[in-house]
Amino acid sequence: MTETGTTNQPLLADPRIQRAIELVWREAALLDAKDYPTWEQLYTDEAIYVIPIDPETDDFRGSLNMVYDDQRLRHLRVERLVQGYSPSAVAAARTVRIVSRFTVEALSDTEVTLRSAQIVNAYKRHEFLTLGAELTHRIVLGDDGDKIALKVIRLNDSEDAVSASGYLL
């Protein structure tokens, strides 16, 4: 059953939502630390990590995406980043990201879907780049740990040309 915000208790006070937000913040910290192998373990085996080009689409399989990674493709992406042999891994950008403005899209005893805003400040080769994005995380709550089942990164400039970033969003 999906709950809505009709109770007297503020949704953000719900411990399920707090757990989901903490997981999103942990993910951001791992990405800034470039701890990609640990980041990879935050995802369920069936999870999808997607950066769509069309800012309005929910049909990720039928649309053109900058990134559409299942478990195998996420693993290959992590391997490229940690081995240091790809152009994106050489002199990788240093990043600081802020994830905030959480809203709850869906809530049940086993899942939380959050929307949030992300600002990524990246520094590479004496240049700063700032990216803004709307995020959607579907978090599966479990007794053995919470995991990300879906992450959608809707970049503000998704329809413009994108240069190689050298980091994960």
Automatic annotation (TrEMBL):
Annotated Gene3D superfamilies: 3.10.450.50
Keywords: Oxidoreductase
Keyword Metal-binding: no
GO biological process annotation, one example: 3-phenylpropionate catabolic process
Coiled-coil residue spans: none
InterPro entries noted in UniProt: NTF2-like_dom_sf, Rng_hydr_dOase-bsu
Pfam family, one: Ring_hydroxyl_B
One GO molecular-function entry: oxidoreductase activity
PANTHER family: 3-PHENYLPROPIONATE_CINNAMIC ACID DIOXYGENASE SUBUNIT BETA, BLR3401 PROTEIN
Family under the similarity heading: Belongs to the bacterial ring-hydroxylating dioxygenase beta subunit family.
Protein name: Aromatic-ring-hydroxylating dioxygenase subunit beta
Species annotation: Kocuria tytonicola
